[in-house]
């Protein structure tokens, strides 16, 4: 398989809101009645970032298949996410709310839900820039996040070292007073990528 066909495979599920063909399908990635007021406020702030910020979504159109990031019929009971991408900054910012199905201990978000968001958002970011595969991921869980609590995240490409790219991400409280998790993923860019 050529690098170009790999790029098409990777990117076919990631859609930018400025693509007219996908605008109607991005509705599932917008604020809805299940979101907290905090989550809706951050979504609105992110929507108004201006410049080259554009909303991004993961949409799987293959019949009988779903993307892991939005695989549940009651997605708001797992987690809901909205994210925005800036090409000039190589950065994604977003907001997330975790539902009852992402629970670990009583009332606490499972760390696997946080790692899913870190892994997926980091992967979306690097693959919007180039085709790459994960080499490693490390996460530091800093504080507990409660179910139904809103969080925001910031993901950026920290640096490149030859064919390796290092992507960092932080998940914080809405007011940025608490850090729930920090992640670093290392990606390998294929020789022809």
Give a structural overview.
A hairpin with a 4-residue loop joins strand 3 (79-86) and strand 4 (91-98). This protein has helices spanning 3-11, 37-47, 111-129, and strands at residues 14-16, 53-58, 79-86, 91-98, 133-141, 150-161, 164-173, 179-188. The longest helix is centred in the middle third of the chain and has 19 residues, at 111-129. It has an eight-stranded antiparallel beta sheet with strand order 1-2-3-4-6-7-8-5. The protein has a single domain, classed as Hotdog Thioesterase (Thiol Ester Dehydrase, Chain A, Roll). The radius of gyration is 16 Å and the shape is globular. With 193 residues, the protein is α+β, with helices and mostly antiparallel strands. The model is unreliable at 1-13 and 20-28 (pLDDT under 50). Its EC number is 3.1.2.2. Its main location: membrane. Residues 107-175 form the Thioesterase domain. It is found in: Cell projection, Ruffle membrane; Cytoplasm; Mitochondrion inner membrane; Mitochondrion intermembrane space. One of its GO terms (cellular component) is ruffle membrane.
Descriptive tags:
193 residues, alpha+beta, Thiol Ester Dehydrase, Chain A, eight-stranded antiparallel sheet, 3 helices, 8 strands, globular, disordered N terminus
The count of DSSP E runs of length 2 or more, i.e. the number of strands, is 8
What sort of overall outline do the alpha carbons produce when their principal axes are compared? globular
Low-confidence spans: 1-13, 20-28
Secondary-structure element pattern, one letter each: HEHEEEHEEEE
Proper CATH architecture: Roll
**How many helical elements?**
3
Mean pLDDT: 78
Looking at the structure, the CATH topology is Thiol Ester Dehydrase, Chain A
CATH homologous superfamily label: Hotdog Thioesterase
Rg, Å, rounded: 16 Å
- The structure class reads alpha+beta
Intertermini distance: 12 Å
Range of strand content: 25-35%
Helix content: 10-25%
For the largest sheet, list the strands in their spatial order: 1-2-3-4-6-7-8-5
């Amino acid at each position: 398989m050529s690098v170009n066909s790999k790029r098409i495979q990777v990117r076919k599920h990631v859609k930018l809101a400025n693509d007219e063909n996908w605008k109607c399908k991005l509705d599932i990635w917008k604020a809805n009645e299940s979101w907290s007021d905090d989550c809706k406020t951050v979504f609105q702030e992110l929507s108004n970032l201006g410049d080259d910020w554009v909303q991004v979504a993961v949409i799987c159109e293959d019949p009988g298949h779903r993307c892991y990031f939005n695989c549940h019929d009651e997605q708001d009971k797992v987690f809901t996410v909205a994210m925005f991408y800036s090409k000039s900054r190589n950065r994604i910012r977003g907001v997330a709310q975790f539902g009852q199905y992402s629970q670990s201990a009583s009332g606490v978000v499972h760390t696997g839900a946080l790692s899913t968001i870190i892994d997926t958002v980091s992967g979306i970011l690097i693959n919007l820039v180039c085709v790459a595969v994960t080499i490693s991921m490390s996460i530091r869980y800093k504080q507990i996040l409660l179910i139904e609590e809103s969080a925001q995240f910031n993901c950026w490409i920290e640096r490149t070292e030859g064919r390796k790219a290092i992507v960092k991400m932080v998940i914080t409280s809405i007011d940025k007073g608490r850090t729930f998790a920090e992640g670093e993923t290392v990606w390998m860019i294929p020789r022809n990528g």
